[in-house]
Write a structure and sequence with these properties.
This protein has 112 residues and is α+β, with helices and mostly antiparallel strands. The chain is built from 2 helices and 6 strands. The protein has a single domain, classed as Alpha-Beta Plaits. It is 21% helix and 36% strand.
Length: 112
């Protein structure tokens, strides 16, 4: 099992959610987060300057079986990409074990 964590633009969340559902990912967790990125300059919107050092993003966490890693990553990549700086990041890490609390199932069975 792998844990896929993605930090994406909030504006791309609906497209990513739809792509994940179409790819067969029916359960994931998400948070609204704030981070600091590489972009240090400010922007002007309607004559008002504001800082872009604190960046609003959405953090998505998904646990998948090993055979479903690439379809999940592809869905996120395709839906989240705008081609501009700040599209986000995807991280993949190992999950050594998982348990379903209700039934006591363990391992890959917990994801079904």
């Amino acid at each position: 099992m792998k844990k896929i964590e993605a930090i994406i633009r909030k504006s791309r969340y609906s497209a990513v959610k739809k792509a994940l559902h179409e790819a067969g990912v029916n359960f994931f967790t998400y948070w609204d987060v704030t981070g600091i990125g590489h972009e240090k300059q400010g922007h002007v919107y309607r004559g008002v300057a504001f800082s872009t050092s604190d960046i609003q993003r959405r953090y998505i966490s998904i646990v998948v079986n090993d055979d479903f890693i690439q379809p999940t990553i592809d869905a996120i990549m395709d839906a989240a990409k705008t081609g501009d700086v700040g599209d986000g990041k995807i991280f993949v890490s190992d999950i050594s074990e998982a348990y379903r609390i209700r039934t006591g199932n363990k391992g890959g069975e917990t994801l079904k």
